User: Fold this.
Amino acid sequence: MSEGKTAVGLREQKKRQTRLALCVAARRLTLERGLDATTAEDVAKAVGVSPRTFFNYYETKLDAVVGPVGEIGTPDTREQFVAGGPTGVLIDDLTWLYASGYEPDNEVRESVSLVAEIIKQESRVLAAFVAAGARYEKAVGELLSARMGADVSTEFAALTAHLMSALSTRAAMSLADNPDRSLAEALHDQCDLAARLFDSGRQ
Assistant:
């Protein structure tokens, strides 16, 4: 790998870490204080960056609570997925792509838990997540189209997006009974369970 590509990769990794850190901080503060009592400046201070940096990543505090909707996996794994890897089997590679974004595992677990609690208290956050669904489906569609070399239908993109969201949610919920397992392992298990629905053998 060239030095230039390495430097770009490190910058992208740092940007991703900052984006996620701002999201987690926004969720923590919103749960602690409420959305109205939380400001973008508060979130920036909690992460140790300037308000200007905050607005480089999110337009509003509500956007930060929702988080990077279209950011699936990591830059490196998205590149590998688009190139047809790592296995060449679409559902397996989608599972691997999504699981690659579950790092660090403890922060992802906390973030999922925070969202569940915030939604109970803040109807605006639930509405924002619903509104972000279209952006998420578009991001999934773009990844699939880039991998397949042709535009996929909006129906296929939406189905894929909702399927992977459902499997990811079930994976997170399953950890209540298996706290020592990772989210990535749980997601792979949920995908294996889902595959049984399409098994042509008699059940």
Notes: The chain has a mean pLDDT of 89.
